[in-house]
Structure formats: structure tokens, C-alpha cells
Write a structure and sequence with these properties.
By secondary structure, this protein is an alpha+beta fold. It has five helices and seven strands. The strands form two sheets. It has a five-stranded mixed β-sheet with strand order 2-4-5-7-6. A two-stranded antiparallel ribbon has the order 1-3.
């Protein structure tokens, strides 16, 4: 409603608004839009448990491809993700794990510079399946490795890198719900490898 009425006000006042008045309206619209996005993100975070679906056998590669299709289409970003040619079947909620993969892909692409590829690999043993998403981006200081999985955490300038600081927090909650673990291996300036495990049983 705030956004809608600000836009109506801008339309109604038309040319009578000076530059400062338009700037104030732009600030109000931008702030309300960001607040709406944060509320939607918090709802998604809270619904990890309440909207969860039963875990079923599902193909990992199919979820990775579905995650690529959810990425923004600016610059054909999904073409920069290298997927394995084959991957094991896992026991999971396919919608939620696809969301985790999409969040990790999007995160890796946002913090990568130039045409560098993001590489996704999958390995399985008797106990669990391990997913890795590796980029060659700006990297993360080890002191911040745990913090980035908390709600509303931004380690980079939010004016340069879009996002609300909820994607990794939601990913962690989903992986926790599956009984797995999630983490990152990274150093500042040397890229990052985000990984998570899903138990086989």
C-alpha cells in the first residue's frame, strides 16, 4: 500500500514536484519495496518446517538443472555453471534442496567477477551425499564463515551486491531439517567453496 500510494502521489502531483520531492518519493518507494522483500524472505524462512514436504528418492542432477532455471536471466547466468554429467539419487524434499542449490548458485555468481565459471560437484559415500559449489570470486575471511549463515548478514557492500542476507540462512535451515550440515571453505580474494551434506538414510 505504501508503494502504491507513493506512486499515485507522484502521478497526481506530476510536474509540480521538484527534484528533491521526487527524490523523497523514490526513497519511500525503495524502502517500502525492500521491506516487502524482507517480509517475504522471513516468511520463506519460517515456512521451512511448516511447508515442508515428505522426503522421497530424487535425482540430484534434475534438482541442479531446476536450480539453474530459477536464476535471473541477466547475461544468461546459468550458462556460467558447470554441472556434473551424472549424480546420485538422494532421499530429500526436492523443492527444498532445489532451493538450496539455487541460493548457492546465485550467491556464487553474484560474488564472481568476469566470465569465471561456477563449478558444482557431487560425491557420495555410504553415509551421505556431499554437494560442492565452487566459485572464483571475492572470497570470505575465515572469521566470517559461520556468520554468513545467520539472518540478514551482509559481508559485502549491499549497494554493490544485491540481496537481503536471507538466502544462506534459509539454505542452512533446510539442510538442518534434512539432518545434514552446511559450510564454506574460503579465504579473502581466493574464491569460495560452499558445501552441504544430505544423509543417505
Amino acid at each position: 500500500m505504501v508503494v502504491s500510494f507513493c506512486e499515485l502521489l507522484e502521478h497526481h502531483l506530476g510536474d509540480t514536484l521538484d527534484e528533491r520531492g521526487r527524490q523523497y518519493l523514490d526513497f519511500a518507494i525503495d524502502g517500502a519495496t525492500r521491506m516487502r522483500a524482507r517480509m517475504q524472505g522471513l516468511l520463506a524462512y519460517s515456512r521451512v518446517e511448516s511447508r515442508a514436504r515428505p522426503r522421497v528418492p530424487v535425482e540430484s542432477l534434475a534438482m541442479m538443472k531446476a536450480a539453474c532455471e530459477r536464476l535471473p536471466e541477466d547475461g544468461l547466468r546459468s550458462d556460467r555453471i558447470a554441472l556434473p554429467t551424472e549424480a546420485p539419487r538422494i532421499f530429500a524434499d526436492p523443492e527444498q534442496i532445489t532451493r538450496v542449490l539455487a541460493a548457492l548458485f546465485d550467491n556464487a555468481l553474484r560474488f564472481s567477477e568476469g566470465p569465471a565459471l561456477v563449478e558444482c560437484t557431487v560425491d557420495a559415500n555410504d553415509d551421505h551425499t556431499l554437494f560442492r559449489v565452487q566459485d572464483r570470486g571475492v572470497g570470505i575471511e575465515p572469521a566470517h564463515h559461520e556468520r554468513i549463515f545467520q539472518v540478514f548478514q551482509h559481508l559485502q557492500d549491499s549497494r554493490t551486491y544485491r540481496g537481503l542476507g536471507l538466502g544462506l540462512a534459509i539454505a542452512k535451515r533446510i539442510v538442518d531439517r534434512h539432518g545434514g550440515t552446511i559450510g564454506v571453505d574460503s579465504e579473502l580474494g581466493r574464491g569460495a567453496t560452499f558445501w552441504f551434506t544430505i544423509p543417505n538414510a
